[in-house]
């Protein structure tokens, strides 16, 4: 046994998460484990933010309802036939699988970016939970335009919530999954109750009355982009682009008994990204009819989107508890993923240590409300940056033999920096980000072209570099 193997055994014994080797059969999990996790993670904190933020874009009822049906279906298919399919074949984390292809030095940069972006997303969810905890303290809620913390009460609440979430995530996948299973039924019931109560508060007793109120939508709020049908389809498909086409959930589905566990993501998409988004949007619709919100709109200001008060207004204490737990069930697995990313950079650190580092970064991010208040834009950018790296894995898995490209090239040749990967990502990112900025194209519209471009360029450049070598 080499020194490297001894170190690997020590790391695995310390963390038990199989970060740098395939998950053994004894640790495979049934579809039920993933059902609870995805239902909990996606009927969670982001939903309390995204639903209301859709209203700020002035989207119509038709575009939202049908757009979400189509976009979420595309997301489920991506998880089942790409992510889960590859995960159960190799049973490796995203980070270790990329290292085999890209080389250790190149993947360090990716892991750092991935981990930090996950921390920012988890921080937004800590912000969401903090808006609920702050209700009994009459805390001033952050506004859509706020960037910095608005008071000491806010800071203390965020720090406490962040510490608790980090400790849960640090206990590993089993604890994260169990926490999601315990909390998800309560949260789903809360979203459903919020939607029903909001409909009653709006005086809606039929679908036609709902259509009359929401109907054709409205003008977007100041500083927001007007959303139509294709905005909703592509945004909802790529809201989790880093997880499915970006392959981040290889780290989750490597524990699955078979690829059919990928279908469990439908629980998250249609309970969370459909019912919960619409229910949360209705909560905000109630608030928009209040004198306070109307006054702000008449002055050209965007009314605040604070999930805690919105849920409390609908279902009282039950709403506060639901928002707190909703933030937890998103932040927990997100911090866990971030910890795995950092662990790939610091392989001698245990999973517990790197998860605590990730949780600390997420907590600091949670102090700044901008990550939550600009969540639609942040999620689109986050997916656009990370998803093309998933194309590297997908194109190699399905097309490398036909293209005559050596699989796991960096590992086989002891290469620490695969230039084909770097140039494929850099060219695709620069080209399509330029198109988005120069021609004012909605970022989610260019995520798929950038993903395909990156994968195709990877095969072409790999053939060139490998032939020369």
UniProtKB/TrEMBL annotation:
GO terms for molecular function: cytosine transmembrane transporter activity. GO terms for cellular component: plasma membrane. The chain crosses the membrane at residues 64-88, 108-132, 152-170, 182-207, 227-246, 267-290, 310-331, 352-372, 378-399, 420-436, 442-461. This is Purine-cytosine permease. Keywords: Membrane, Transmembrane, Transmembrane helix.
